[in-house]
Structures are given as structure tokens and as C-alpha cells.
Amino acid sequence: MDLKQLYQDIILEHGKSPRNFGKCEKYTHEAKGHNPLCGDKVQIFLNLNKEKKVENLTFEGSGCAISMASTSIMTELVKGKSLEAAKKIVLDFLDMIKNTQEIKSEELDEDQKTKIMSLSGVKQYPMRVKCATLGWHTLSSAMLEKKEEVNTEAFD
User: Fold this and answer.
1) What residues have CB less than 8 Å from 97, skipping those under 6 apart?
2) Cα–Cα distance between 13 and 100 in angstroms, integer?
3) Structural domain containing residue 44
4) Within a domain: residue 154?
């Protein structure tokens, strides 16, 4: 199997069966996001413990396969990480999807990097970048405890 096929398989699998879907109990942070261009909507539920570690991270929402797959992958990669590591992963992903060829995060192992890199082809389709980044921007908003809804039209 070539790399492109592997990436497509990862996205399809996460799009059909999103991980960590639903509202977790005892969340400490939440945020909502909307992509008006595509109609994607996501709500993030984040549970940070006293040591600022992501104990749980789930989401609810609806949207295209890219949006749902990207958010699903994000929850898997960030759960269990420290808040600082989670913030770095989000920034590294956003940099990769918009600028660089590779994910540079030192917070992820090779399998995790493969999962996140499955979304790298989205940058060839500028209209789909907002779909892929919606969940990530919404998680960032939750971590920063912002109250206003994330709107992808605010991002270039």
C-alpha cells in the first residue's frame, strides 16, 4: 500500500467512525466552532485535571468527512498530553496544514505523526483547509477559555 492510499484510508476510517465522539462527563472547558462555507459545526469538551493534563477530550458535531476525521484524529493525539504539549501539537498541525511539508512535533511518536500527516494533502484544496482546521481552532479556543464561537471565516 502506498502512502497516499494509507492517508486516504485513515481519513475515511475516522470520517466514518469518529473517535471520542459525544459529550464527556465532567468537562472543564468547552468551545463551539462553525465553518459557514461548508456548514461544519463542532463542539469540543475538554477535561483538564489539576496537573493541567488532558484527561479527556471529546466532541460533538456534524460536517464533511474531512472535518469529522480531522477532529477525531486530533482527540486521539491530544488526549493524555499536558496542556503545554497539546498547545504545541495544535500549533504544529496548523503550521503543517498551511505552510510546511512535515509535522515537526516532538510531542508525537511516529504512528501519531503518520495519522496527523494523513491530513497534509488537504492543503492542495484551499477550501478544505478550513474543514480540516475547524476542530483544531476550536480546541485552541477551549484551552484558552474563550467564550465566543470559533468561525473559520476569521482565519486566512
Assistant:
1) 119, 120, 122, 123, 129, 132, 133
2) 25
3) 3-149
4) no
> For residue range 80-92, what is the model confidence (pLDDT) as tens digits?
999 999 999 999 9
Q: What is the pTM of this model?
A: 0.94
State phi, psi for 122 to the nearest 5 degrees: -60, -30
Q: In degrees rounded to 5, what are phi and psi of residue 146?
A: -75, 145
In whole angstroms, what is the distance from residue 115 CA to residue 125 CA?
19
Answer yes or no: is 155 within a domain.
no
**Can you name the residues that pair with 48 across neighbouring β-strands?**
54
Looking up residue 144, the CATH number of its domain turns out to be 3.90.1010.10
Please give the DSSP secondary-structure letter assigned to residue 154.
Answer: G
* Number of structural domains in the chain: 1
